[in-house]
Specification:
heterotrimer, A alpha+beta, B mainly alpha, C alpha+beta, A: alpha+beta, 2 domains, two-stranded antiparallel ribbon, 17 helices, C: alpha+beta, four-stranded mixed sheet, 5 helices, 4 strands, 9% strand
Amino acid sequence: MNARVRGLIIFAVIVAVAVVACGLLPFVWLPAAGVGMALPVITVPGEVVSYGALPGGVNLTNTFIGMIVADILLVIFVLLAWRASKGWTKEVPGRFQAFVEMLVETIYNFLKNLGGERLRSAPLLWPFVATIFLFLLAANMSKLFPGVESVGKIHCAYADTSGYPVVQGATDNAYILYVDRALDAGNAQTAETEEICNTWFYAYKGKYEYAQRYEIGDRSFEQVRDDLTAAAATAEGEELAFTQARLEAVEQLIALEPVLEAQQAALAAATAAAADDHGSTDDHSAAEEDHSEEAAATTEETTATEGEEAATEGEEEAPVVETPAPVEPVVADVTVLEAEIAATQQAYNLALSGVQYPGATMPLTAEQLDNGAFPFIFHVTPFVRGAASDLSLTVAYAIMAVIAVQVYGVMALGPAYFEKFINLSALGNLSKRPLGAVDFIVGIFEIISEFAKIISLAFRLFGNIFAGGVALIAISFLVSILVPGVILLLEVVIGAVQALVFSVLTLVFVVQAMEHHGSGDDHGHDSHGETAHH
Amino acid sequence: MEGLEIGLKAIGAGLAMLGAIGPGLGIGFLVNGALQAIGRNPDAGGQVQTNMILGIVFTEAVAIYCLVVALIVLFVL
Amino acid sequence: MRVNKNVVLLTLVMAALMVVSPAFAAEESGNPLDTLGINMGFMISQWINFGLVFLLLTTLLWRPLVNAMDARTAKIKKGIEDAAAAANARRNAEVEAEKIINQAQREAQQRVAESQGKGEDVAKQVEAEARKQADKIIADAKAASTAARDAELAGLRGQVTSIAVAIAQQLIGKSLDEKRQKELVSEFLSNVPASAQNLGGAVEVTSAMPLEAAEQEKVKKALGASGVIFKVDPAILGGLIVRAGDRVVDGSVRNNLTNLSGRLN
């Protein structure tokens, strides 16, 4: 009984933690603080962190940085091991040395089990395979460090992608994406809005007095308009342009304000009518009356907003013509009205943002603006991305592995190795053994299979690592706390397994190529059979 | 028009990934067999495991071709 | 650690190349593979990077570590072999020692056995002697007691026998007149036992009364002896006693009486 009570308490704590961590925190508190989870842009190629930073004006990608990070990790590891072991001369190993020795011995023994005697007889084979393994392991593990694939350079979102507004971070050059809604996929950026954003962000922001945020405060829009008109009289050049843009936005605001109010009133009326209608279905005439009133109001509004959408207008009129109006048109009206209001609100917010930041492309509310949100569309390009989530790396390594296979094959068998591909002896003996034709054709397929090896090696590694990153991003976007930890653990396993698989496959292919071949591609199995019998 | 194009691409990529069903089943069968083998002869566990991983890897290659096709449909076409 | 200058130089050159290499493919934009991120320049830099890592790991990790591990394995193997040899030597020594100990033990046992045997012999001897003495004493004592008893019994019996014999002699003596004497001799002569016939040599004949010449002739004839010495001993009461060397044929009355007395006893 006591245990049960204790269990109940523990269970309650677990549930509470789960609710807070997986419910309140990611869906309520973090968005309220403006640091909800953003959905990053997913691209296959390495994202450019710095344009033209590499020699020859080549763009520096984050996967390249990921590769350097993996290198640094390896160098540190090796140098630490070298120092801890005094150049591998220390007889009694310390803890770190023992760890490294155990790791290397495990790798060595594993590869030896797989490759048999050839592993040592073939020059540099085992260091080659082990280096592939260790580098890929370093790359795959370094990709899971905190900050990798999440901390990065903030810039205006590229055209055809989506992004979020930003707020100022701790320092002048630090920004944080402003996400105040859960599961917000961001706003789309077009080529024009991207250009405006870039101009603002890089040319004006923080540089000129007139390009700072113009705060409205408690003033009415008319007052603001008057103030801006007065300011425009004295301004010149760019400042004048800015002021005029702000003035235009204020004019728009002044025009939109009554429209929005009218729409909201109409919506309130329609909702009330709908509620009435639901309450007493007999009272048809009242509903109809309400209806026509609303219709009149909406037509007025739409003309005021200068025919925002002719289509909606048409839709609007249809229920008015139908005199025996059932319940549905009222409901439809409410939804239509809501859409209308949303559109007007959007225009209103855009104008409001435009007053404070001329040319704003992201409609923000007054509250959001007061929170310091900058009404342009940005996203983050991580500084570091997993090196193996770049096809350049995986294809390069796969090509390297397959070339090594050919090299070791030739080293072991001499020119006879190429009989595997173009079986000349089978072709020559065709008169005696007509079935040799099959061998010849199989040889041709072997050529294809070498290229298939490149593709499967490269895309296996890439697919697993890239998909792991995407899964992590997607899960983080949905539930940003606790749950991604599970995926992260899975990623640790996948990263290690893929590094192992790549190196093991390289070794297996090499060993296979070094076998004397009779026919077909059962060599791999034969060699395994041999090792299995030991 | 552009939306339709994107939608069709997405459908195409999704259809391409249907090919992952086969390798999924295959890996399931493979692991089934390997685990039975280990169950019958636990001493040979290491060998069976190594060969199982190799088999999984070769089976997985088919799924990878699907992934390649899907990626090409999404990003290259 | 002594660093090969060539290795350092090679490393630096490769590092520089790696950073520069993406430029090789800078103009290759527009390639459809670029949309997948497959870029020749970056691939070249990956290869060079791999070369660097390979160089680093091979020189600082794989080679020296495996060599060190091999050396250690060899050392351990040698140690194990040495230990095995030492163990072997010890085992041999142990066997030897055991052998020696066994021998010593055997000797000791032998000696103990010997000494024990001697002791036992001595003890046995002593015991035997003691027993013998004891037996002798007992026998003496028994003999003495038997003799005493016999003497006593003999005394008694002698008296009884003498009485009986006296009675018998009284009876016989009265009746043993001359005539009876002659009858006894002739009876003896007529019925000479086989053992007293043809004696030859010197024969001694004892009689209670002196024999007549005719009787002597008869005796000579009956005995078949050449030289006969005739003795007279009245103690034999009657009859004859023939003695030829070591043979005696007693046909005397005394002998018969003695036999009787023995039977009475």
